[in-house]
Amino acid sequence: MRHMTTDTSPRRATNISLPEDVYKDAKELGINFSQTCERAIRQAVQAEKDRQWAIKFADFIQAYNDMVERDGLPLAQYRTF
């Protein structure tokens, strides 16, 4: 997954609350909390952006699909497969 943060990006300290068993297991396994949280939050942010994009462009996508259903694929005559 591609993201914009670089090693020189400013960081912001934050606190999280975890169930004791999750904290204990992660600590025993040597899981890096910051990296794991950052990765999970990035995935959640991207999923939400994707969801919002799909909602924003749903009418366009439906109109395009209707056009393809009605008229076929644009430039289909140039397909080589």
Structural class: mainly alpha
Which consecutive residue ranges, at least 5 long each, have pLDDT under 50? none
Could you give the distance between the termini?
30 Å
The Rg value, from CA coordinates, equals: 22 Å
Helix content: 55-70%
Protein name: Potential post-segregation antitoxin
Keywords: Toxin-antitoxin system
Pfam families: CcdA (PF07362)
Provide the descriptors you would attach to this structure in a database record:
81 residues, 58% helix, elongated
Helix-strand layout with pairing:
Elements: H1 20-28, H2 33-56, H3 58-71
Keywords: Toxin-antitoxin system
InterPro entries: Post-segregation_anti-tox_CcdA
Organism: Paraburkholderia graminis (strain ATCC 700544 / DSM 17151 / LMG 18924 / NCIMB 13744 / C4D1M)
Written account of the structure:
Keywords: Toxin-antitoxin system. This is Potential post-segregation antitoxin. It comes from Paraburkholderia graminis (strain ATCC 700544 / DSM 17151 / LMG 18924 / NCIMB 13744 / C4D1M). This protein has 81 residues and is mainly alpha-helical. The chain has a domain at 20-70. The protein contains 3 helices and no strands. The protein has helices at residues 20-28, 33-56, 58-71. The radius of gyration is 22 Å and the shape is elongated.
What can be said about this structure in brief?
The protein is mainly alpha-helical and 81 residues long.
